[in-house]
Structure formats: C-alpha cells, structure tokens
C-alpha cells in the first residue's frame, strides 16, 4: 500500500489565542497579524470563523512561552484592532500530518477525525493545506491521538 501520510508532528509547546468579535472588513486580519509580527510573535496555525453581523473570531497559535506576553500585548491593542476580547487556551496540543498525497486522497480527513472520535478525543481549530492537515486536541489526549494516527497510517 502506498503511503499517504509521511510524518506526524506533535507540538505541546503552543497555546491557542482567540480574538473575539473582530470586525469582518478588508484589511482587519492584515492589521492583526502585522501588529503581532511587529510585537515579535511568530504565529503558527491560523483560523477565522464565518462572519456574523459583520464580526468574526480569529484564532491562532503561538509558542507557550509567549502566552502571557502575547496576552498583554493584545489587550493593549484590542480597541486599535477592533476586537471585543481575547481568550487564551493553554491546554491544547497541535498535531500536524504531512503528506504529498494528502490533498488528493478522498476521505482522508474523515478517516482522521472518525478515528479521533472513536478514541473520544475532541478536535478544535482544524486547518488543511495541500500537504498538511493540522488541528488542536486536548493536551492530555495528544499522545494517544498520535499513537492512534500512526497505527491508522502504518507509521512507526
């Protein structure tokens, strides 16, 4: 059988940051990530919710060691960025699946998330690209998730 997933990475050194009720208008997200870059933060996984009443939530991960600094930095800039609040979750881990055939394999995401469901592991903040599938899971369940995924895809 041809390998679909080449590698699985587990990162427990991240936190999820959510900017709540951000104006959903052109340039706002650019302003957010420009400000974070100017603050010296390396942003990793990014997601945005759909707009409701012209507002959206923007979520991203940063390194856990930056958690308090990014929180303070964003609180000072909430009005400037147009956000109504900021939340942080320190109890998540990032899992990334890598594979050149990931985007051309039907039902791959279904297989991944069905397995995690059978294991009783909830999933947050999913992000997919042509060769990656990344998502957050509860930190205390992350190693079990990776073990199950490695078994599913025949990785040692």
Structure overview:
The protein has about 160 residues and is α+β, with helices and mostly antiparallel strands. It has two domains: about 5-10 and about 90-150, Alpha-Beta Plaits, CATH 3.30.70; about 15-90, ACT domain (Alpha-Beta Plaits), CATH 3.30.70.260. The protein contains four helices and eight strands, in the order ββαββαββαββα. The strands form two sheets. A four-stranded antiparallel sheet has the order 1-6-8-7, with helices on one face. A four-stranded antiparallel sheet has the order 3-4-2-5, with helices on one face. α1 packs across α2 (about 65-80). It is elongated and about 50 Å long. The two termini are about 15 Å apart. The model has no long low-confidence stretch (mean pLDDT about 95).
Rg, nearest Å = 17 Å
Low-confidence stretches: none
Distance between the termini: 15 Å
| CATH homolog superfamily of the largest domain | ACT domain
What is the helix tally?
Answer: 4
Largest beta sheet: strand ordering: 1-6-8-7
The helix fraction, in percent, is: 25-40%
How would the global form be characterised? elongated
| N to C succession of SSEs | EEHEEHEEHEEH
Characterize the main sheet. 4 strands, antiparallel
Q: Which CATH-level-2 architecture of the largest domain?
A: 2-Layer Sandwich
- Quote the CATH topology of the largest domain: Alpha-Beta Plaits
Quick one: how many beta strands?
8
Beta-strand proportion: 25-35%
Category by helix and strand content? alpha+beta
- CATH class annotation of the largest domain: Alpha Beta
**Total discrete domains:** 2
Q: Report the average pLDDT across residues.
A: 93
């Amino acid at each position: 059988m041809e390998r679909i997933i080449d590698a699985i990475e587990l990162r427990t050194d991240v936190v999820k940051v959510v900017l709540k009720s951000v104006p959903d208008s052109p340039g706002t997200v650019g302003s957010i990530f420009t400000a974070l870059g100017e603050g010296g933060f390396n942003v990793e996984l990014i997601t945005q919710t759909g707009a409701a009443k012209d507002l959206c939530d923007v979520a991203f991960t940063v390194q856990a060691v930056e958690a308090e600094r990014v929180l303070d930095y964003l609180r000072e800039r909430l009005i400037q960025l147009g956000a109504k609040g900021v939340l942080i979750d320190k109890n998540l881990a990032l899992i990334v699946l890598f594979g050149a055939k990931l985007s051309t394999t039907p039902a791959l995401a279904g297989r991944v998330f069905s397995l995690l469901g059978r294991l009783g592991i909830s999933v947050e903040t999913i992000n997919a690209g042509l060769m990656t599938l990344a998502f957050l899971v509860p930190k205390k369940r992350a190693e079990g998730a990776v073990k199950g995924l490695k078994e599913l895809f025949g990785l040692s």
